[in-house]
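User: Structure tokens for both sequences below?

Assistant:
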Amino acid sequence: MKPMDKHRVHGAARQFTRSTDAAVNDKLASLLSVQSTTQSVGLIGRTVDVTLASGPTLGQVVSLDLTGSQPQMSVKLASGSVVSGVTLDKIQTIR
């Protein structure tokens, strides 16, 4: 057997590193998705301060939609209206 020259060894190491980095990134994205879902499920029935286009307001999380790329909640406001499509980044405080 012939030993590999140093250029081929370095090339193989770079390719392995890129492959490993991509796998780690995929696993991390999957873990973050599970965490977002878990956090959202825990908010059902909770009163939250939420930032909407009209400004900050108080409401209760009444439902959760997990069909998209990120969890979206429906929040019932004090006025009785329900705002859907609220994402975790819009929740400011959980009461």
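Moving on to the next sequence.
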Amino acid sequence: MYDIKRRRMLTYGGYSNEWLDDLWSLDVSSIVGPSYSIEKIEPNMGPLSGNTLISVFGKGYHENTSKYRVLFKIGSRWEEADTGRVEWMSKNEFTTYTPNFRK
């Protein structure tokens, strides 16, 4: 069982029909990752000149978009979306605009 609030795995029960009342807890916060996920981005392609509105679907998004950092990569080049153009839609969606890779 996974305790999402404390980010730990819980295992109840024993081994080889012994220690049946044991409860084990393992802190997995350092390996589980962030409390959000990205499942789909629409559209999944756009022009190199950017300025395409995209919707990012997933789980665990919060209203405080000032903490969002959205990065795009082409080859070895990274560009960051303008944080002022990130808009929270719901706990399962936010939107932003793609950066210009032609500059």
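User: Anything stand out in the second?

Assistant: The chain has a mean pLDDT of 85.
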